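Lab manual, section 2.4: Encoding a predicted structure.

Procedure: take the sequence of the chain (133 residues), apply the prediction step described in section 2.3, and record the output as structure tokens. A sample record is shown.
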Amino acid sequence: MDRTATTSPYYLAWIASVAADLAAARDALAAHDLATLGAVAERSALRMHASAMAADPHILYWNPATLAAIATVKRLRADGLLAYFTIDAGPHVKVLCASADAAKVQAALAATPAVLRVLVLAPGPGATIVSES
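Recorded output:
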């Protein structure tokens, strides 16, 4: 991200949006509001990637499978399923959805051309304090 921070004309705008997105994500988590959380996750991921794509030289993490997976998620949502994508610094798409919909999302992504593997994961038990011996 150093190159993006120093050369992208979009970097500061993305950074400026982070605090509001983080607050909205926290509120959505507290309210168990998947639609809002998903919208925030997508928006933030796209802004980060836009910033990297505008760096000089550009950084383009996506590949055809990335775009195909995004299209699948958008199709699922258009069909009424609450599914939202996010992408960290790489080509791999992560999908946020309700546990009850995970099998449908998995099947749709597994049928998506160029997608090689689909993993289904769920939140862990949360943080715990471990004392040192």
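Check your result against the sample. The first helix runs from residue 2 to 7.
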